[in-house]
């Protein structure tokens, strides 16, 4: 049984460049009306922009301000997790926020179904699912289900389980310095499951994030798709998924190239092509499971 501790939940926030969004996050945590939270900000800014804001909230929320010269969201999360004092770890984006009932909902789910990892559904404030397709029913986290049940800022993991799995892979995610630009949370949870940990996803556990209304037709978006695709290929290969499992991830963007090409939509065909090439490159460059990740420098995705 877990007794009452000063810090039950440690929220590690990797942040760079944002202030107003962090204020919204802190206000949402203040509205939880809890005394067992700590928030660790791993600050990658080269200035003091966060100092006044964090000082303003520090009387009501236990805040730890960690300066970091290293870039990379996963490096920052690992650094913050090492300093965390809570039983459970969370990794909020610096522009997400939580509904007032988030922790009450979470604790009710914890009481009904004990597990080592809990995850939820990303939503707009009106309850619409955002940022992809997510499972509509509660389900166990497995190798098959991690692809539509995980979003970094709605994953809650026991600290010892996170540590036993080796934390986040610093070769993955934004700022990593590699082409593998996404799917770091799938990688982390897969590593936890491989240690014997258990996990549960609940669509009723929700949190909020700004929706991405960016133009999908730009070259910049195509380059982002390349990095996202490379991250997926990396994680699938790294965790021993078969070519049969990988094949649909190749066929879908290939179909997009053909369909958009027939329609004369060059911008969307380019986007599909970059996604396809990223997935192939991620699969090809992923090191064996027990090997240290190689260094693959981030570069501009292939030009059309």
Describe the secondary structure blueprint for this structure:
Layout: E1 9-15, H1 20-30, E2 37-43, H2 51-57, E3 62-67, H3 73-83, E4 88-90, H4 102-112, E5 117-123, E6 139-140, E7 155-158, H5 159-164, H6 184-194, E8 199-208, H7 219-238, H8 243-263, H9 266-285
Parallel strand pairs: 1-2, 1-4, 2-3, 5-8
Antiparallel strand pairs: 4-7, 5-7, 6-8
Helix pairs in contact: 7-9, 8-9
List keywords for this structure.
304 residues, 8-stranded mixed beta sheet, alpha/beta
Q: What does the largest sheet look like?
A: 8 strands, mixed
How much strand? Answer: 15-25%
Mean pLDDT: 94
Distance between the termini: 58 Å
Radius of gyration using CA atoms only = 19 Å
Oligomeric state of the chains? single chain
Question: How would you characterize this protein structure?
Answer:
By secondary structure, this protein is of the alpha/beta class. 39% of the residues lie in helices and 15% in strands. It has nine helices and eight strands. An eight-stranded mixed beta sheet has the order 3-2-1-4-7-5-8-6. Helix 1 (20-30) links the parallel strand 1 (9-15) and strand 2. The longest helix has 21 residues, at 243-263. The protein is globular.
In brief:
By secondary structure, the protein is α/β, with parallel strands linked by helices.
